[in-house]
Amino acid sequence: MKNTIFLAFLLIAIACQKKESVASEKIANIKDTHTFSKPDQAVVKHLDLDIKVDFDTQTISGKASWTIDNTSKGNEIIFDENTLQISKVTLGENEKETKFSLGEEVAFHGKPLKIAIEPTTTKVNIYYSTTKEAVALQWLTPAQTADKKYPFLFSQGESIWSRTWIPCQDSPAIRFTYNAKVTVPKDLMAVMSAVNPQQKNNSGIYTFKQDKAIPSYLMAIAVGDIGFKSIDKRTGVYAEKSVLDKAAWEFGELGKMVDAAEKLFGPYRWGRYDVLVLPPSFPYGDMENPNLTFLTPGVIAGDRSLTSLLAHELGHSWSGNLVTNATWDDVWLNEGFTTYVEHRIGEAIFGIQEAKMQDVLSRKSLYDNLEDYGPKNPETKLKVNVDGKNADDSLSDIPYEKGYAFLQTVENAVGRETFDKFITEYFNAHAFQSITTEDFLKYFNEKLIKGDKVLAEKIKAEEWIYQPDVPSNITTPVSEDFNKIDEIQKTWRKTGVLGLSAKIKSTNEKQHFIDYLPSDMTQKEMADIDKEFNFSQGGNFVIKRQWFVQAIKHHYNPAYPAIEQFMMATSRTGSLQTLYKEMVKTPEGKTWAKSIFEKAKSGYHLTTVQDLQKTLN
Questions:
Q1: Within 13 Å and on the Cβ side, how many CA atoms surround 477?
Q2: Inter-residue contact 274 to 260 (CB < 8 Å)
Q3: In angstroms, rounded to a whole number, what is the distance separating the alpha carbons of residues 367 and 359?
Q4: Nearest alpha carbon to residue 334 among 345, 342, 323
Q5: Alpha-carbon span 21 to 480, nearest angstrom
Q6: What is the number of other CB atoms lying within 10 angstroms of the CB of residue 465?
Q7: What CA–CA distance (Å, rounded) separates 60 from 280?
Q8: Model pTM?
Q9: Which residues participate in catalysis according to the annotation?
């Protein structure tokens, strides 16, 4: 019996070693130009983080202890850092001090942190502090929060900004587990992309554990005067106190969304799924940090009309967090798949008619982006090349919408049942791994195409992935509900707008109506529509953004104060870009845009500021 048990353990150990060997070999073959690290020589495996958050100096300081695998048995390991202050580095549990040096700075990338190690080194301890130049960190004054009483801190690591608050091997190909001890002011509470506390304690010391291997861009922290409210046994909401009850009601169907996703694509593997509602300066609509999605307050419309947007971040629990793009050139693997999963969750929860409307809106977004870039622009490929650039340049709408259109094409070619089975097996086969586009194509050809040349030609996968624009086999979605709106568009100028708000009710319907208003709208027509629908003063974030595009385009001055207020109250990069791009089309609009930007930029996240400066210049 003892021999049998010993043999079983031996076989398990051999299997684990084989899996580790395969994983190390895979990392060695991935060429990520956005990291200085050389994971084929020495790679991180686990992080023990012990930090203090200081709002007076707006710094995080402490120790990052990395468990490493020195596969080459060499004398150096390289980390990424950007604007950090490194005070000392030690090795092992006995903390033997060692030499370190910083290499030459590269734009957007920071500097390589080169640390002397020994062939037997398994732990590297880096003592450091952040600086006010840390792009990942947004420090908010009490006035910038919802409750106006306490300061707030949150991080945003995607794409390569985690290195501005933690010295790390900052590549999506490199995954690690982590434990953290975080000390904050006693009036505040800390949460992370991990298992989280559900109530504030008296010590100001919080501990965290993430036992699933994640890439560095999914490291996340937030600190503020926040509370928690449960939705069901594994979902809940964190928010400032004045927002908490509204948020809990708004996301009341969150548990149902997780259940629906599991039925489609297999088990949710992260334990809890909670959301944190952040102050308005958060630069994205949402961020899929494991266990805890960071969420813009703009989603809280008061009528659950925008909660379908949360399906995208939930979808990342399978595509992105579970199966991750290995480099930022492959970002469509995260965003295209997640957009597909988002639409499928939405269809399961909100019905087929809602799904059809979302499909039409999605395709319009794709074609608008193709027009902006130009159809032959290499940035309209799914597999892009951002070597030597800011990795954030890969995060346009193209990987989302073109990636989704490609996967719809595959589904239509093989049938939904076959594609559902394929995509579920794809998630299972690559769980907690980072893969390249070429890895995907190899799996796709082996498991789905299986040598069928007719099917391959019907799908045109390589044309979708490696060529700009979109292939001729792209589908054209149709929504009967939108067809009715299109009929109204043909007649409202003759019949007037009175009563239209009773016929055009949902967020999707209003957005479609706004998007296709005539190009020669008069000031009176703009005013009549605004009066009928209350677009300028309404509470729905998406509707206001789309209406303000029309207001800028048609010089509808009565909406200008609301536009300015909107642009100063949010830091959601994509929505702001939509408005700033429309403004700069005219000289007077550009002057106005620059004026708003100068007043608003102190409240914008640094990544938002970088993005908008390109547009304004």
A1: 24
A2: no
A3: 12
A4: 323
A5: 54
A6: 21
A7: 22
A8: 0.93
A9: 313, 400
Of 6, 172, 13, 156, which Cα lies nearest the Cα of 80?
172
CATH 2.60.40.1730 is right for the domain spanning 34-219: yes
CA 368/CA 289 separation, integer angstroms: 29
Asked: is 484-616 a CATH 3.40.50.2000 domain? The reply is no
- Best CA proximity match to 407, nearest among 328, 318, 310, 341: 341
Question: And the tokens for 212?
Answer: 């699933």
Instruction: Report the CATH number of the 225-304 domain.
Output: 3.30.2010.30
pLDDT tens per residue, range 394-443: 989 999 999 999 999 999 999 999 999 999 999 999 999 999 999 999 99
CA nearest to 402, candidates 348, 474, 344: 474
- From 3.40.50.150, 2.30.40.10, 1.10.390.10, 3.40.50.720, which CATH number describes the 318-466 domain? 1.10.390.10
Residue identified by tokens 């092992």 is 92
- Output phi, psi for 175, to 5 deg: -115, 150
Please name which of 342, 271, 340 lies closest in space to residue 310, comparing C-alpha atoms: 342
**DSSP class of 272:** -
Q: Which has the closest alpha carbon to 162: 71, 274, 84, 254? A: 84
Cis peptide before 394 (omega within 30 of 0): no
Angle between helices 332-350 and 254-265 (to 10 degrees): 110
If you ran DSSP here, which 8-state letter would residue 206 be given? E
pLDDT band at 8 (very low <50, low <70, confident <90, very high): very low
Which parts of 157-240 fold into alpha helices (H)?
A: none
Q: CB–CB of 293/311 below 8 Å?
A: no
What pLDDT, in 10s, does the model give residues 378-389?
Answer: 999 999 999 999
